[in-house]
Design brief:
This protein has 335 residues and is α/β, with parallel strands linked by helices. It is 30% helix and 25% strand. The radius of gyration is 21 Å and the shape is globular.
Length: 335
């Protein structure tokens, strides 16, 4: 195991979506663990399975989706192990929003337009018994919003979602997620649709909060700049699989998987005339009919014989640096 003190461990996770067009094989044998107190990043292009993976951690996969198989273990404190897959619906609801909280991509979709921001925060606390009533929770809501760096929190408690800017809505959602002092905070692209200045404020706040509250953070993003600035460990996802995992400095210094290298080359290095961004040729595969073997092989410039037949295992090349690629597996005959 990578972690001496893990907070969550995922083993061989499979998630499918049953649609009229066919079965979408969204998550294909994903395994990883998050160490207590670290910032763990899931990075990859849109549709690679980052959000589905994060929602599966608390079984938030809605119909027509289904967790086919896999093991998910949550450790709320060292030595205490909870098997997420064996919990009843009532038991898992006690963990969601309390021990494990989410910041979703679109803050507007997380806020009910009929209720004030104070009510949203109070309801979260009341459901888990942190306060005895909604009325008591509303009184404490300003304190929670102040923790989330909300400007003038006393008046924002009485505001409705449509009265707030995008950045304020995001702070309100962060306040809701922090209301019960979770042990694991999952931030699913928390800076989507925000301008650059607000993005920086939100990410700096999350960094400060992690240190102050001793949080473990799972950050989901496709922004390599955020990865470099925020993360301790990075897992690169492609087409529902983790293709590389490494400490952040090691990943940027020595990316091994061809897809990871492609992501690095696609990051703008400087601004000037006649600058052409590199791109990865081809398109993301259709996960109803995923390619056999390595799912990246149709777009890979290094593909050879085993790539289109056998799925490469995720193997450790150096300490804590794993990659799923036949270029590095002994069975591939090439290194």
């Amino acid at each position: 195991m990578r972690c001496k003190d893990p907070i969550i461990v995922v083993k061989d996770l499979y998630v499918n979506f049953y649609t009229y067009a066919g079965v979408v094989k969204a998550i294909n044998g994903v395994s990883f663990e998050i160490c207590r107190g670290e910032t763990y990043c899931l990075v990859g292009e849109t549709g690679c399975g980052k959000s589905v993976t994060s929602r599966a951690l608390t079984r938030l996969i809605k119909s027509p989706g289904r967790i086919e198989k896999g093991e998910i273990y949550f450790y709320p404190e060292p030595g205490k192990k909870i098997d997420i897959m064996k919990l009843s619906d009532e038991e898992i609801r006690k963990i969601r929003g309390y021990d494990i909280a989410y910041i979703f991509q679109d803050p507007s979709a997380s806020l009910d337009p009929l209720y004030t921001i104070g009510y949203h925060v109070a309801e979260t606390m009341a459901f888990h018994g942190v306060v005895q009533s909604i009325k008591e929770g509303i009184k404490k809501a300003a304190q929670v919003l102040r923790l989330a760096k909300m400007p003038d929190p006393e008046s924002r408690v009485r505001a409705f979602p449509h009265e707030l800017s995008g950045g304020m809505k995001q702070r309100a959602v962060i306040g809701m997620s922090l209301a019960n002092r979770p042990k694991l905070l999952i931030a699913d692209e928390p800076t989507t649709a925000l301008d650059v200045t607000i993005q920086a404020q939100i990410m700096n706040f999350l960094k400060e909060l992690k240190e102050k509250e001793n949080l473990t953070l799972l950050l989901i993003t496709h922004n390599m700049g955020l990865v470099a600035e925020m993360c301790d460990t990075v897992a690169v996802m492609y087409a529902g699989e983790i293709v590389e995992e490494a400490p952040v400095e090691e990943l940027f210094k020595n990316p091994l998987h061809p897809y990871t290298r492609g992501l690095m080359r696609a990051v703008p290095k400087h601004v000037g005339k006649n600058v052409t961004l590199e791109s990865i040729p081809g398109t993301v595969p259709n996960l109803i009919f995923p390619p056999p073997g390595c799912r990246f092989h149709p777009r890979c410039p290094y593909r050879f014989d085993p790539c289109d037949k056998k799925r490469p295992p995720l193997i450790e090349i150096e300490k804590n640096h794993k990659v799923a690629c036949w270029l590095y597996a002994k069975e591939g005959g090439k290194r």
